[in-house]
Amino acid sequence: MNYIEHLQNLLSPEQVTTNDVLREQHGRDESYHEPHLPDVVVFPKSAEEVSAILAFANEQLIPVVPFGLGTSLEGHVIPTKGGISLDLSLMNAVLEVRSEDFLVKVQPGVTRSQLNKELKKYGMFFSVDPGADATLGGMAATNASGTTSVRYGIMRDQVRDLEVVLANGDIIHTGGLAAKSSSGYHLNGLMIGSEGTLGVITELTLRVYGIPEKIVAGRATFNTVQEAVNSVVALKQAGIPMARIELVDKTSIEQVNHASGASFLEMPTLFLEFHGNESGLQSDVVFATELLNDNGCTGLSFEQDERARNQLWELRHNLAYTYIHSAPGKRLMSTDVVVPINSLPEAIENSRQKIESMNINAGIVGHVGDGNYHILLMVDMNDPQDILKAKELNEHVVEFALSLGGTCTGEHGVGSGKAKYQRLEHGLAYDWMKQIKQVFDPNNIMNPGKIFID
């Protein structure tokens, strides 16, 4: 009996497939990284089934790659060594809403929009908003963040507890329900961002928040990116509790207008959002307006209507897809670095100079409120020179960010695309990370080839 037949007996035949179309869907993500097909796609329905699969795979030395929705951008879910693609989409239940504790318990296949639809009944929402409607398990695996992290924090800040199945089939919990603990090692922090290299997340207990009484969104335009970024620094230094501060440069605004029929001024633009109560929020808006004008703002408009606000943020969230649709046949490369806030103007200016010196058509966008920005460019994967130019730009941006004390990835994760920068960023700590990997996964079956390349 081959191992695929064993999996069919272990679960049920309909949960195990070698269908070529499904294998192809599970052999890629949304990145430019080269696809690779798994041998088989498996759809578990419980932590116990995941445990049985991993115990068997560990015994037989079969690679296992967890799969959510495939929205990752650094090759995380690509099974570069073949083996099992472990699709968690059938584990998609919201298990419990603990409204008085501001906690919710979910399975890993639940999506962000699915959770917020359920939480709205309780007057609450889940804060992490990476743009893509990713699964919560995938968001924890990559330590996702997004537009609201400047106010509410990143994925790691929201996780109270995880149920994780380890490579040998053991099922553990990494936290609890309490708001804080000084007991033992911080296993939550270890598992979040581990990208399926240490185990499979099968349940999450997450912090949620009350829907704000008042929300105001706005757009501020500037003559230069430098002025826009200087405004971000000024807003941060003033302590205004911004919920979102997003930069969209002139090139990207042009893409938005062309794709959507919008008529935004084609200038560097900050997309802003304020959360709070009626009186406090109005004071914040007035103070922010003064600071923006002092830093060269040429135009400022605000939206309080929910539909108008949603349309504004939909355009921002769909920007990556706007680039994709603008260049059929090419693949998107999105860089992803974070630098200290006071170094942000220098870093973005350096990136723009490099883009122009290489004669590349690329836009700069980002969650600049926490120092995170991206360069979006389309790459012709059939043109070796195009690929080399894109990689040269990416390397330049990463190395400059690291020279400023930043990181090679703020939210996309390491995957295979950023693995080569790990030793440069972490130094000797990288060797200790590898030893942790060896303890949890001595046979290297868990998403092999990701994060660690040596």
Automatic annotation (TrEMBL):
Pfam families cross-referenced by the UniProt entry:
FAD-oxidase_C (PF02913), FAD_binding_4 (PF01565)
PROSITE patterns in the cross-refs: FAD_PCMH (PS51387)
Q: Which cofactor does it need?
A: FAD
Per the database record, which ranges form the FAD-binding PCMH-type domain?
34-211
Record key words, sorted: FAD, Flavoprotein, Oxidoreductase, Transit peptide
Q: What class of enzyme is it?
A: oxidoreductase
Q: Which InterPro entries match?
A: FAD-bd_oxidored_4_C, FAD-bd_PCMH, FAD-bd_PCMH-like_sf, FAD-bd_PCMH_sub2, FAD-linked_Oxase-like_C, Oxid_FAD_bind_N, Vanillyl_alc_oxidase_C-sub2
Which EC number(s) does UniProt give?
1.1.2.4
Q: Which family does it belong to?
A: Belongs to the FAD-binding oxidoreductase/transferase type 4 family.
Protein name from the UniProt record: D-lactate dehydrogenase (cytochrome)
